[in-house]
């Protein structure tokens, strides 16, 4: 009989509203403007690990279906290329089949882009923003530290994630969970180790900015040479061991963009997934010139979960997937 | 039997894994924002009782196990098998020592218990949480003992040995928590 009730208490709803307001105040004070791009687009991302939800009218052909956006990235980049200057978007994003204590298929994402910022500047701004959001709830910002992806693997697992053989990664994983029957590529094992071994080790370390991801996990970040090794100029922000934000020094070159999409689609094919067409308007925007910029997406629901000491997203959402 | 995908794994679901029926205890979805999604699943092997965690790629599936829990009446033991009956159909099942295991010491004839059937045969037996059994042997109670006193061992009609207060005497019927093996109270005599 109580199925109609929200997961979030009245107190939690007020905290959500405080955080929304802190975010808008933060960007207003810094001259970053709010934009609201479409939630429904004609194209979806090629990332093999991200599946969209579709929308279609009753008599639409499959070709006419549209994608609920998994992030506002493509539309925001078109705005940047058109000369918007620094922009942010606070809204819903959708990812199929991602449901659990830290995942909800429909979630609130804050994404922003800073022309002229490098990734360190952007990571510093993420920490400032989190300080304001936590402050609005009367909570202090924990200690902030930075670590390279490889440093953490070295420390927690005593292996080099850039050079270790796949077998060696699989053997390391077996110490943390039963992996019998699991068939993964090299990045899959790295993901398993990151989520099962490294993340839990970050639980008591406050705010940790992890940078220099393997080049194979660059997604739409630029790759750079660091200490003679090619890495992705990408960072992830962990708060209390929970992944909160993912930032890139954005890839500008439309040709490299096409190549990355081709690699994604090859992996999608191999995994039996539908391939994704590249958005030609995004490519045209990139060709016309995306300003040198860094961008980041942050999970607002997870931030609330952390700030309020909740164990499940369901406790901080008005109506999670199961209640919607 | 239907098969179940990782996103359908719920606590209590029975699945086949490595040829054995298992019960799912917990299922946690983990996924880096950009990366492979996994389900970390805690399972109990219903044959061995072993509990462990296995990680699956999200979207993989397992075949369901033909496992059902049925309330049955315990009839008797012939020394090799324990015999049970479904009260509605009068259908009888026999369970061996491996299936009955430690539960044997709580089974009193005519009592109801939960029999887990795997492909129609008893896989395990779970006694009621509380059973009432007669004490067949214990040292005599000492005068002046009260409820706060110490305890002594008592052998029950089924062979189980439990610690009881000193004032409890042979021939009395007591109530025992089968999950812990603890004495709960004197049972009212019928």
Please outline the helices and strands:
The complex is a heterodimer of chains A (324) and B (190).
Chain A: H1 10-29, E1 33-34, E2 40-41, E3 54-55, E4 66-68, H2 73-81, E5 87-94, E6 106-115, H3 119-136, E7 144-148, H4 149-157, H5 166-173, H6 186-201, E8 207-214, E9 223-226, E10 229-239, E11 242-249, H7 254-270, H8 280-289, E12 293-299, H9 300-308
Parallel strand pairs in A: 1-5, 7-8
Antiparallel strand pairs in A: 2-4, 3-4, 5-6, 6-12, 8-10, 9-10, 10-11, 11-12
Chain B: E1 3-5, E2 14-17, E3 20-30, E4 38-45, E5 51-57, E6 61-63, E7 67-77, E8 82-85, E9 92-95, H1 97-100, E10 112-118, E11 121-127, E12 130-138, E13 151-156, E14 161-165, E15 173-177, E16 182-186
Antiparallel strand pairs in B: 1-6, 2-3, 3-4, 4-5, 7-8, 7-10, 8-9, 10-11, 12-13, 12-15, 13-14, 15-16
Helix/strand structural class of chain A? alpha+beta
Q: What is the N-to-C succession of helices and strands of chain A? A: HEEEEHEEHEHHHEEEEHHEH
**Order of helix and strand elements from N to C terminus of chain B:** EEEEEEEEEHEEEEEEE
Uncertain ranges of chain B: none
Strand content of chain A: 15-25%
